[in-house]
Structure formats: structure tokens, C-alpha cells
Amino acid sequence: MATGRGISQLLKKVFRQHPSGSSLLSSTRIYHGEGITGFTGLKALAILGVGASGLLSFGTIASADEAEHGLESPSYPWPHEGILSSYDHASIRRGHQVYQQVCASCHSMSLVGVAYTEEETKAMAAEIEVVDGPNDEGEMFTRPGKLSDRLPQPYANEQAARFSNGGAYPPDLSLITKARHNGQNYVFSLLTGYRDPPAGVSIREGLHYNPYFPGGAIAMPKMLSDGAVEYEDGTPATEAQVSLTFLL
């Protein structure tokens, strides 16, 4: 697992290799994510102390806090955070692929923005079958999706989602970076933070060790790795790359 400095350097390298290159304009604000279609439904503490006892006490408190709330995520140099910066539409398109091919089987996405032309979005919508009705005979029927439809949900309800995931409930990813402390830094750290548990740490069966997740044990297994997706634009799909501008 790369150190925080190593990941930061990798981020800078990837961002230099893939500058914003799309001239597509969006009629709707991009709410997050590297991966979004056009469906409309769709800290650092500084402590001055005297004596070793104070330092030891702080160390104990910090360790307990990390165990409860998760390891604090590093801050990364996201290129879209500048005053005059904007999102890279090509990167958003790649993220859409990541969501569709890796995340959509468990996570819903209800609130989204636009990163495609209207014709492209219509074509993607038409690939989805939507249950509609009733018709004149009182029967429900399926039809191709259209722009006014929501992205399909992976489960019919919360109970079905928990049953399929060992009791865990996969959250909707629409506002995940706004709903989590340290936002996009947390999401990147979590997705790339899986590792073997340290000596003395026991993880219950069915859970996975990730120091960035509160409590250190998460039900979601490691999902992203080198080659997890094959980008349509030929961008090398390394683990760090597929986690970069994800769900912003």
C-alpha cells in the first residue's frame, strides 16, 4: 500500500497525464462523480505539551479516536478545487464506467448531473428496460428507458439489500462525498485503503480491514484494482486512477 506521500505524487502524475480535454458543455451542474449519466432523477491537530506523560496521553486518545472514527484521510491535490477550476468531463465519463461496471450492482445513484450530450444520454437510457403501466387492459409492461426515468435501483427495498449483503446496507452514492467527513479525500482513501489487519487485530468473518472506515472493519470487500475496468478512451486503469475523481 502506497504511503500518503506516494499516493499524492501518483495523483499529481495522473492529473498531468489527463488534463481536461472535453469540450462538452453541461446544462446541469455536475453534482458529483466521475460517473454520471443525464437522467433527471438520476485536520491536523497541533499540540504543545511539556513532558512525556502529556504526549503519551495524547497518543492514547488519538489511537482510541482512530479506532472509533477511522484514520484521518490525507488531503490530496484535486485539480478541480481551484477558484477557476472545473471538472474534467473525460474523467467524469471514465467514472461513469467505474460506477456502471463495479458499483451499480450494489449501490444506487439517485441524484446526478450531466456529462454527456443529449443524444448520448438518450441512447444510454434506451438500453434500460423500465416497468410502466398499467396499460388499457390494466397490465404492467416494460419499455425502453427515457430521459425522465430514474437510474434503476439494484434492490427492490432496504430489506432485500441487507439480505444480499450480510446485513449491511449499501448507501446511495449520489451525495456520498458530502455525507462523509473529508469528502472526496475520504472516498479515495477508503477505496485504496484495504490491507491486511495489523498484528493483534481480529476481523469478524464477512468483514474486511480498512483503517479509514469507522471501527476499521467494513462489509464491502476491496472492489477496485488494476484493470478493474477497461476504459473506452484507452486510459490505463490502475487502482489509483479508477479511484481518482470518483463521486465528487
From TrEMBL:
Its main location: membrane. Keywords: Heme, Iron, Membrane, Metal-binding, Transmembrane, Transmembrane helix. It comes from Aegilops tauschii subsp. strangulata. It is found in: Membrane. Residues 90-191 form the Cytochrome c domain. One of its GO terms (cellular component) is mitochondrion. GO terms for biological process: mitochondrial electron transport, ubiquinol to cytochrome c. This is Cytochrome c domain-containing protein. GO terms for molecular function: electron transfer activity; heme binding; metal ion binding. Binds 1 heme c group covalently per subunit. Its cofactor is heme c. Heme c binds at residues 103, 106-107, 220. PROSITE patterns: CYTC. InterPro entries: Cyt_c-like_dom, Cyt_c-like_dom_sf, Cyt_c1. It comes from the Eukaryota.
